[in-house]
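for the writeup, i need someone to sanity check this before i put it in the appendix. the sequnce is what the collaborator sent (i think, or maybe the updated version? ugh). structure was predicted straight from it, no edits. if anything looks off just tell me and ill rerun, i have time this weekend
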Amino acid sequence: MELINYVKDLNTNEELFPAIHRYAVENRVPIIDSDALNVVKQYIAIKGAKNILEIGTAIGYSALHFASAAEGVHVTTIEKDETSHEIARRNIGESAYSGNIKAILADAKEAELGDAEFDFLFIDASKGNNQLFFDKYKEYLADGALIIVDNIFVRGLIADDNVENKNKRKLRDKVRAFNQSMKDSEYTTSFLNVGDGLLVIY
């Protein structure tokens, strides 16, 4: 067994929402890797986060998991794709966490949340817009909030210096620039080799 698979198995817990997970796999809906998910949930519990903002709902899989991470957790999640949003609303509505999750249909690049304040931000939308999402939504965070960005390795693209496809190369360069800007910033950062890469910003 490869070391990375050994660690992944250790970091993966029993699936709480098997039907939703199965739907995502069968329909190729991008969701957070199982090992990364459980690391994020542990951060939620350790932080004692109560108000989470998620950028990128997809079908509501991660929002449901976040709501289950600890007692009294509330999640606001933004998704621009109408079909995904409707599936997420159905999944959330049929769960025990329907009162803990607010799903918003909007383009996260333009959404406004009024005077809402959050103590945890999870960014998992279009990877080329990580910097935009970070800059926009950090304004909604309380002092001492935690930010986690998923897919910072872009399925290995981040370390590939020989990308021929122009669009993929542009995406790689944008994610590289964001990762480097966070490393060079005033914030405390950790880059974790779990799932497709997690960036933890404090």
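Helices lie at 3-11, 18-26, 34-47, 61-67, 82-93, 130-137, 166-183. The first helix runs from residue 3 to 11.
thx in advance!!
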